[in-house]
Design brief:
The complex is a heterotrimer of chains A (307), B (296) and C (281).
Chain A (H helix, E strand, L loop, with lengths): L1 H18 L5 H4 L23 E12 L2 E12 L3 E5 L6 H7 L10 E9 L2 E2 L7 H7 E4 L10 H12 L5 H11 L3 H4 L12 H14 L4 E5 L7 H14 L4 E5 L3 H7 L2 E9 L5 E10 H6 L4 H7 L5
Parallel strand pairs in A: 3-8, 3-9, 6-7, 7-8
Antiparallel strand pairs in A: 1-2, 1-4, 4-5, 9-10
Chain B lengths: L12 H36 L5 H5 L12 H32 L5 H15 L2 H13 L9 H25 L3 H9 L4 H29 L3 H6 L19 H10 L9 H28 L5
Helix pairs in contact in B: 1-11, 3-6, 3-8, 3-10, 4-6, 5-6, 6-8, 7-8, 8-11, 10-11
Chain C lengths: L1 H27 L2 H6 L3 E2 L6 E2 L2 H32 L2 H16 L2 H21 L8 H25 L3 H9 L4 H12 L1 H17 L2 H6 L17 H10 L7 H33 L3
Antiparallel strand pairs in C: 1-2
Helix pairs in contact in C: 1-12, 3-6, 3-9, 4-6, 5-6, 6-9, 7-8, 9-12, 11-12
The chains are: A alpha/beta (307), B mainly alpha (296), C mainly alpha (281).
Chain lengths: 307, 296, 281
């Protein structure tokens, strides 16, 4: 193995830097082999992340007894960006909301299967959803700042969670982390609605960071933003990856290709009764999904033939 | 990033207690309001049920408490409601039609009219009484304290209710109906008269009933206009002196009672009758709303 | 078009009728005496025309009413907007509507014949006069609860769900989300409801006429009778008074005062309602 490395090393390093990946791909090819078709279209020896932070096992979510997504089994890696892609209506948002129990807020929503976080079952009856969300934060599709000042928006989380420490410092830290500090440091007391869409979304990210979560879930965070703001947030994501684990839902394939380490491709299945249910088709290292996917459906999607 | 060693998801006991305590507190407050209503209703029924006899309804008011009845006041109220309805329906609906179909919202005078209606809705009812006194009973029209004056005063008081309800009913008719009619060559007025208004009738009717339900219980304006309290005849015309149920009830409440004549039970019976009438009116309004609720 | 003008006409007539007689009133009584005098005895000899006792009486009774209406009304609004399950809503909302539909004279009867003797006297003893401001104030408070509750509830429901989700997403509890995000966001509507409630309390007549007594009090002892502006107008107009007498004019002077106070409050309330509708672009 060592021999192979020397030759491709330089090339890989360059590519690695370009993509911002922290792991050269070469190492990963040591795990298992690819393209063994298996049950349910999932490659049997899927490449597992080095350290799993979430472990999903046959998860199914239904609304009022109609399944929206089913049979979801994969791991999400620590300090990685995992992207969920696929056409509309295939349950990506539904699934990501399972990870921090936001589906609890929807009457009629039911989650079955196992969702393990650091080995602990999130849906165990002893687990309080509110506590879960302190560790697993979420950024939404449409920026939703509170109608308060920028300062109070960020400070809300720490105050409400009883975090100790100098609030001014906490706010500055969060805003710096979200690459927003310089832009707003002179107007912290102004209303958050006065910011542009891209700034508001970074504010929401900063707000999320202020409570020091473990994981950040992002549900199509850039779909309401212009390309420049999108770029800024993508850069931000790549930086945050070092300290947090990120799961992102996106319908923008290029975005998934740009930022994520691993990608899960979802699709919609029509049952005999014309019911649409989402499933995971394939999950793998991003590079593989986009260059050499195992499943034909994946290939059709990423090459733009469908979806 | 902090290291999270402990298992996730176990809330502090303090927080849980706070949450639960809050909801209990809310429910207690809601409960107090409901409780008061309940006690009030029970009290009325307890005091008044025994006295709500046929005799009570058919007798006129008298010094002798056990011979006293509410007949004059009952018919007075009926007459008043009649006059009131005859006033508020055309005026209220016409105003609503104007505001919804003809008025240009950007014109200052139309916005002024809307603001005006909003204000009138919140003016204390007794001020309407003063208005009636100064203009209808005395002053320019000098009608005297008669049914017509009373009915008009009440009408002015509840007019905003009719206007708001009619506007909503008219607004609910989709533009496609209007467009269809105009496309056939009908004028705006024809469209309104033949399509929009008929479709809005249930909503307007509900509004009128609710307005009357409000008017029927109003006492203060009638006091100021000069509704009499000791009348022993039913109204004979629009220019007849009158009394009304709230007035009669008020009189019985405030008349000193002694061992010979106890007027309080009469008041309770009167109130009970009034509440029954209100119940009927509101039920009709709800029935109308449900029966004719149209989904466009 | 003509019909719409009737509403404008009404306001104009109200204003004119009040002003005309009021001006004539002030022809005989000095404005200073009226506005700043503290003794109100217009029908006695010698008569005094300081309106402050009436204004004070109105304000005290209304303040008591708000002490009842604001907590109860807001609690109902918060519960209905954020916590209530549909089955529970179906019970609470109609109850509030019934409460709103009961004629004020019925509340007056209740205050005098039940609340004062059975409740107030039971709790506070015989210091409580048979006619007192406390009973009237509390009962008026209850009858205003639906007003405060329904407008506040509307404005809380209007807060977009995305704000609640944002708060929950951060790990805030339901209590924290409700009181620290939703409630402040709905604040202008809530303030509007309180101001409107106060305006109603000020204009309320029958409850005070029946239960609060007709002796003006230059003080705040709610256990004793206090006369409000509305009660004065009602009781004076009840007796047949000839047009043109000073007594007749007092009706209008006090009426104008009342009208102006409620008009100002209503305008403030309308302004707040408009504000809450515009907060979310």
């Amino acid at each position: 193995m060592a021999d192979r490395v020397t030759e491709h090393d330089e090339q890989r390093t360059e590519e690695t830097e370009q993509r911002g990946l922290t792991q050269p791909l070469e190492l990963r090819s040591a795990h298992g082999d690819s393209s063994v078709p298996a049950v349910d279209g999932m490659p049997e020896a899927e490449r597992r992340p080095r350290e799993a932070i979430f472990s999903l096992d046959d998860v199914m979510v239904s609304y009022n007894r109609k399944p929206a997504v089913r049979g979801v089994t994969f791991d999400i890696g620590k300090n990685e960006i995992t992207a969920l892609i696929g056409p509309s209506g295939c349950g990506k948002s539904t699934l990501i909301r399972c990870l921090n129990r936001m589906n609890d807020l929807i009457p009629g929503a039911k989650v079955e299967g196992k969702v393990l976080y650091h080995g602990q079952d999130l849906y165990d009856s002893a687990v309080d959803a509110v506590e879960v969300r302190k560790r697993i934060g979420m950024v939404f599709q449409k920026p939703n700042p509170f109608p308060k000042s920028i300062y109070d928006n960020i400070a809300f989380g720490p105050r409400v969670l009883g975090m100790k420490g100098n609030m001014d410092e906490l706010v500055e830290q969060a805003l710096t982390h979200a690459v927003l500090w310089d832009e707003v440091k002179d107007r912290l007391k102004t209303n958050a609605f006065g910011m542009s869409g891209g700034q508001q979304q970074r504010l929401c990210i900063a707000r999320c960071l202020a409570v020091e979560p473990d994981v950040i879930l992002m549900d199509e965070p850039c779909s309401a933003l212009d390309p420049i703001s999108t770029g800024k947030i993508e850069d931000l994501m790549l930086n945050l990856k070092n300290e947090y684990s990120i799961v992102i839902v996106t319908h923008n394939m290029q975005q998934a290709a740009r930022v994520s380490d691993r990608t899960a491709f979802f699709t919609v299945e029509l049952s005999e009764t014309e019911e649409r249910t989402g499933r995971v088709v394939e999950i793998d290292d991003t590079e593989k999904i986009f260059t050499n996917p195992s499943d034909p459906r994946t290939e059709a999607y990423v090459t733009g033939k469908v979806g | 990033m902090s290291a999270h060693a402990q298992p996730v998801g176990t809330p502090s006991a303090k927080n849980r207690a706070k949450d639960r305590g809050f909801v209990i507190g809310l429910l207690l407050c809601v409960g107090v309001s409901i409780l008061l209503l309940g006690v009030l209703l029970v009290d009325i029924v307890a005091d008044g049920a025994g006295n709500l006899t046929w005799n009570f309804i058919t007798s006129f008011s008298s010094i002798n408490a056990d011979q006293s009845g509410i007949q004059a006041a009952f018919w007075g109220t009926i007459w008043l409601m009649g006059v009131c309805a005859l006033f508020i329906v055309p005026v209220g609906v016409a105003t609503a039609v104007y505001l919804e179909e003809y008025a240009d919202e950007t014109r200052w005078y139309n916005r002024f009219i809307e603001l005006n209606i909003q204000n009138l809705a919140a003016v204390p009812s007794i001020v309407y009484g003063i208005l009636g006194l100064a203009f209808l009973v005395r002053g320019p029209l000098s009608l005297g304290p008669v049914i017509l004056a009373g009915g008009l005063t009440l009408g002015l008081l509840v007019l905003p209710v009719v206007i708001v309800a009619s506007r909503e009913a008219i607004r609910a008719v989709p533009p496609s109906i209007r467009e269809g009619s105009m496309a056939l060559g009908a004028t705006q007025w024809q469209t309104i008269w033949r399509q929009v208004l008929p479709a809005s009738i249930p909503g307007i009717a509900t509004g009128v009933i609710l307005a009357l339900a409000r008017a029927i219980g109003e006492t203060a304006p009638l006091i100021v206009i000069g509704a009499a309290t000791f009348i022993a005849f039913n109204p004979e015309g629009l220019d007849s002196a009158f009394t009304a149920m709230p007035i009669q009830i008020f009189d019985w409440i405030t008349r000193p009672s002694n061992d010979v004549n106890d007027y309080r039970p009469l008041a309770a019976a009167g109130i009970l009758l009034l509440m029954i009438m209100l119940l009927v009116m509101n039920s009709v309004a709800i029935w109308l709303r449900n029966r004719y609720e149209q989904k466009w | 078009m003509l019909a719409a003008f009737i509403s404008v006409l009404t306001t104009t007539l109200i204003v004119i009728s009040l002003i005309e007689e009021t001006i004539s009133f002030f022809g005989e009584v000095g404005i200073g005496d009226y506005l700043f005098g503290t003794e109100w005895a217009p029908l006695f000899e010698p008569a005094s025309f300081g309106v402050l006792p009436l204004v004070l009486g109105t304000l005290v009774v209304s303040a008591v009413a708000m002490l009842v209406a604001v907590p109860l009304g807001l609690a109902a609004a918060i519960y209905l907007a954020e916590y209530a399950r549909p089955a529970v809503r179906k019970i609470i909302k109609p109850t509030l509507e019934v409460l709103a539909g009961v004629p004020t004279i019925v509340f007056g009867y209740f205050a005098l014949t039940f609340f004062t003797p059975e409740i107030l006297r039971a709790i506070l003893g015989s210091d409580v006069a048979i006619f007192n401001g406390l009973s009237a104030g509390i009962i008026i408070g209850f009858l205003i609860v639906p007003t405060v509750a329904s407008i506040s509830e509307d404005s809380m429901t209007a807060v977009p769900q995305s704000l609640r989700e944002g708060s929950f997403g951060l790990g805030a509890s339901k209590l924290q989300t409700t009181m620290r995000v939703v409630f402040p966001a709905a604040l202008s509507g809530i303030v509007a409801s309180v101001v409107l409630g106060f305006s109603r309390a000020v204009g309320e007549t029958m409850v005070v006429v029946i239960a609060a007594g007709l002796s003006p009090q230059w003080g705040v002892n709610v256990l004793q009778p206090m006369e409000t502006m509305t009660a004065f107008i009602a009781s004076t107009a009840k007796g047949d008074i000839a047009t043109g007498t000073i007594a007749y004019k007092t009706i209008f002077a006090v009426g104008t005062t009342l009208f102006v106070i409620t008009l100002i409050m209503n305008l403030i309330s309308i302004r707040f309602v408009r504000k809450y509708r515009q907060v979310y672009e």
